[in-house]
Write a structure and sequence with these properties.
Main location: nucleus
Structural class: alpha+beta
Helix content: 25-40%
Order of helices and strands: EEEEEHEHEEHHEHEEEEHEEHHEEH
Keywords: Endonuclease, Hydrolase, Metal-binding, Nuclease, Nucleotide-binding, Nucleus, RNA-binding
Family: Belongs to the DXO/Dom3Z family.
Bound molecules: adenosine-3'-5'-diphosphate, magnesium ion
Shape: globular
Radius of gyration: 22 Å
Strand content: 15-25%
Largest sheet: 11 strands, mixed
Mean pLDDT: 93
Organism: Paraconiothyrium brasiliense
Enzyme class: hydrolase
């Protein structure tokens, strides 16, 4: 694509900060067979424990065990332990886990990009997500581009959402936005156990509907993957395993992604199907990026009663949508991301500079703007020092 060249500020006194733009449209340029992609391979992993403390182990890995139907996903909302970052987490845990791995192997985990999976999900889905906007920071260090979320912007957005009164039209009997954030975690509590089902006492399995819900604990997988010629290290949360991890390092891991969605009526209208298939875009992109092979959907009623579960194979989703409403195209997402990353490598080139990436949806462009910010936050001091030692 023909991205515009940097336009320079006209202010003669101040050093000018370059701006570059990458157009998303027309999408035709990204259609066709997808750029070569490799199956993501786990490099390392870490857990957050029940206090959200970093642990270099598998202690927070959970196993899938089908939940009982008829459960109320709203139950326990008043005792929800909701973890939200108060300070900018940057890429710290991801880099900490990578440094640990490098200490063991003595080899540098080279990559063109290092970021959280969530950032890549936003980039990959940008061509088809009509409402998406994003803001990120990127910096170039020693051959690698590190990308993180613009945390202050995200925190401000969250605060705004929280203070917004419910819309006037909202039925007081209907669950509100906060409740809808809760019930995804409630579904996880109903569908997961901390040990493989065969080793788990029946009482533990049956006690899940009354178990407290918390999102403090997490398990994160860090994978190496590639989009065309670009090698990425991505870290992201995995919800659980459908079977024990295989013994060999390079074997695929049977991770699962849990999602809730409103059950389709028995005679769904085209609009119902379109709404669901649109939702599948994020489900697919998120799971595809970490190589999560299976997505388990918890179907719920409008009021939040769990009515069914359905397993979807991640790599079959793009074909399903292609044959269905065709509201998005997986190859276009991959080709867009590949082209965008290639372009980013030609823009984010100056060691130590910080660039702000923002998706300007109305203009249909991703803008990259040099900032005067310091790069220290993005790449942690510990990681920097470790890499000097290696
Ligand atoms: P659902 O996706 O089933 O609604 P994840 O699916 O990524 O593992 O996240 C688990 C749950 O966290 C989600 O379950 C949802 O409840 C909540 N959640 C995650 N991201 C959210 C967001 N951007 N806004 C609101 N809730 C979110
Ligand atoms: Mg999750
Ligand atoms: Mg999930």
């Amino acid at each position: 694509p023909s991205a515009t060249s940097p336009s320079l500020s006209t202010n003669d006194c101040a050093p000018s900060l370059a701006i570059s733009r990458f157009p998303i449209q027309p999408l035709n340029q990204f259609r066709g067979a997808s750029a070569s992609i490799k199956r993501p391979q786990e490099v390392t992993h870490f857990s957050y424990d029940d206090d959200h403390q970093y642990k270099e182990d598998e202690s927070s890995v959970n196993y899938y065990c089908p939940p009982q139907m008829g459960a109320d996903l709203k139950e326990g909302f008043s005792t929800f332990r909701h973890y939200e970052d108060k300070t900018d987490p940057h890429l710290d845990s991801l880099l900490r886990a990578v440094a640990s791995k490098e200490r063991i192997t003595g080899l540098q985990e080279q990559a063109d990009f290092v970021t959280w999976r969530g950032m890549m999900t936003k980039i990959m889905t940008a061509p088809f997500d009509m409402f998406a906007e994003f803001a990120m920071f990127a910096t170039f260090r020693d051959g690698t581009i590190y990308i993180e979320e613009d945390f202050p912007a995200r925190a401000a957005q969250r605060a705004q959402e929280a203070s917004r009164p419910p819309p006037k039209w909202q039925d007081p009997n209907m669950p509100n936005h906060r409740m809808m954030t809760y019930w995804g975690y409630k579904f996880e509590t109903l569908a997961l156990i901390p040990t493989p089902p065969s080793e788990t006492p029946r009482e533990v399995i049956d006690a899940r509907p009354k178990a407290p819900v918390s999102n403090y604990a997490q398990h994160c997988s860090i994978v190496r993957t590639s989009f065309g010629p670009h090698v990425l290290l991505l870290g992201g949360e995995v919800d659980g395993l459908s079977a024990p991890k295989p013994p060999f390092l390079n074997d695929p891991i049977p991770w699962i992604e849990l999602k809730t969605a409103e059950a389709l009526p028995s005679n769904p209208s085209n609009r119902d199907i379109l709404k669901f298939e649109r939702k599948l875009l994020k489900f697919w992109a998120q799971s595809f990026l970490l190589g999560v092979p299976k997505i388990i959907i918890g179907w719920r009623s409008k009021q939040g009663i769990l009515t069914g579960v359905q397993e979807l194979e991640t790599n079959k989703i793009p074909g399903m949508v292609r044959r269905g409403t065709h509201c998005w195209d997986g190859n276009t997402c991959i080709n867009f991301a590949t082209a965008f990353l290639g372009w980013l490598r030609s823009v984010v080139t100056e060691e130590g500079k910080v660039y702000r990436l923002s998706l300007e949806k109305k203009a249909g462009i991703v803008e990259v703007r040099e900032t005067k910010e310091a790069a220290e936050g993005i790449v942690s001091k510990d990681f920097d020092e470790w890499r000097k030692e290696l």
